[in-house]
User: Which sequence fits this backbone?
């Protein structure tokens, strides 16, 4: 049984979803684990991680619009030190979550055919985001 | 330290919650792990996994109605290729999440007394769903 | 490779967020694991776990108010055996989730600078809550 871990840095272009599926697949492949467990932790409170549809781009457009409706910008937040998009970003990160776990089976991530791994940036401006990555297996 | 993993297939009867607690408990028991970590990944983007109340059926009825209010069907989605229940299903799966992790202690899942594990089907029609399952421990 | 696991009991003062970051850091430190994976499971369906901003208290005030807007108390729930705050508590626990995973790197939890671990109590009254904790690594 072995482990591998790293801190991955990803530059986001501002609000939206960055596909990190290939980056994670390559990292798992070079670790040489046939069976195991991959864990991701987004080290921020206004960005998050999710697994969603990787084919139809419209799903991510609708998802962003829906998050905006559930956590709109506005004057009713106490916390607005960093601007009107700050508190909504914390709420969207809470809803989607900062953790993902993916079993590794037969040397690859056991994702479904239509599943992609996304880093969700909830702030308007570009940010450098860090993801703690851990893999255990054999 | 050992590992076990599998892909579990589950037929859902359409929209609603399928209790998979017993199936998971049996799979953990036959693996013979006394202490470890169980991980589940739902391999779909319009179905999801959650842990909720296993006694009062009304909780699941209220939960389904609440998800309908937060992610209603309607004409305001760009993505509707597969019907009006498709995009709301992606949103509900995002809110509830596709991952669960359950510590195994003293040979069994360390769930609370009132906790059950549910596969949530968010599409109207029955589907065959797959869950990637991973267990590590000793 | 080694494991450690325990059931942690925490008394909440009623609705709100209890910071358990230091308790978890101390537990990880005494386990003497340099690289590994920490998993938490809240063993309840009306309390939950989340990672959020640890500096500005206003973020948690806004978060609580937002959860109240998304899952308000009211007469439209079927499940109200335990009072008007019961079903909203189940919904808030579903949105935030009962699981957290934190990679351990260089002997400590790989949290971001501004991240704290919170036990979220969604019932009005104080409760004793249990968290199943699992650590694997070397």
Assistant:
């Amino acid at each position: 049984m072995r482990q591998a871990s790293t801190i991955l840095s990803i530059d986001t272009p501002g609000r939206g979803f960055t596909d990190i599926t290939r980056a994670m697949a390559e990292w798992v492949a070079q670790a040489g684990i046939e069976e195991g467990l991959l864990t991701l932790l987004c080290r921020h409170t206004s960005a998050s991680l999710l697994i969603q549809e990787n084919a139809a781009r419209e799903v991510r457009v609708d998802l962003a619009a829906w998050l905006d409706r559930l956590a709109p910008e506005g004057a009713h937040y106490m916390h607005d030190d960093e601007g009107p998009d700050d508190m909504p970003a914390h709420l969207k990160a809470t809803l989607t979550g900062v953790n993902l776990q993916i079993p590794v089976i037969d040397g690859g991530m056991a994702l479904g055919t239509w599943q992609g791994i996304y880093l969700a940036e909830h702030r308007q401006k570009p940010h450098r985001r860090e993801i703690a990555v851990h893999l255990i297996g054999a």
